[in-house]
Amino acid sequence: MFAVVRTGGKQYRVAAGDKIVIEKIEGDAGASVTLGDVLLAGEGSELRSVEGFVVAAEIIVQAKADKVIVFKKRRRHNYRRKNGHRQQHTILKIVSVGGQTAKSNEGDTAPAAQA
Description:
mainly beta, four-stranded antiparallel sheet, 1 helix, about 60% strand
């Protein structure tokens, strides 16, 4: 089974056991997270409803990407600026695809309070 999830403004096609690199999210290594913004789900060529669909993942490590050098120059004006940037990202391991979100108990508590 696979799913397409959106996180950090990007979309990722994931399946159980995959490792993905996403924009940094809060959490320590070993913590479990759920990705609830599922856009598409299916198995083989069949698509499934994504109503209440979540993807469970585990944070492997919080890391930084390779350094990107930003160099600006304006010729004949003695203007040179050199800067570097390392983007922070999170590496996730997908544990399961297809869990359901917990249903709210608001409807269940009202009749029980009257009884």
